[in-house]
Amino acid sequence: MPTGILLVESSPASADDAAAYHDWYENTHLAEMCELEGVVAARRLAVVGADSYIALYEIEADDLDAVRAGLGAASRSGRMSPPVGLRTDPPPTVRLLRDIAAFRP
Q1: Given a cut of 60, is residue 1 above it in pLDDT?
Q2: 60 near 3, Cβ under 8 Å?
Q3: Which pLDDT score is estimated for 2?
Q4: 4-98 has which fold?
Q5: Is the dihedral angle over the CA atoms 57, 58, 60, 63 positive or is it negative?
Q6: What is the pLDDT of residues 11-54, one digit of tens each?
Q7: Cα–Cα distance between 61 and 45 in angstroms, integer?
Q8: Which residue among 3, 17, 52, 86 has its CA within the 20 to 30 Å range from the CA of 101?
């Protein structure tokens, strides 16, 4: 079971950018994220009724802040590709969530 989730909500900059945005996310970025220590799975979801998308990264790590630091280091070093076709105004919403309880019948 993951110990945390990194949630990112974003959207393409324009209709013309949508294909490149989705291609970058699905064929480049998800795999890059899963190469980070602690990130064990990634998936994308479409927000119903909106031109907005959620990326969920499942994390298994004792130190979620270390995973966040690893992501920052990978971005600064160029190991992560820059976003393609991403709307920056407003910027993506990024939240690191820590598991506190789970239930599955």
Answers
A1: no
A2: yes
A3: 63
A4: Alpha-Beta Plaits (3.30.70)
A5: positive
A6: 999 999 999 999 999 999 999 999 999 999 999 999 999 999 99
A7: 23
A8: 52
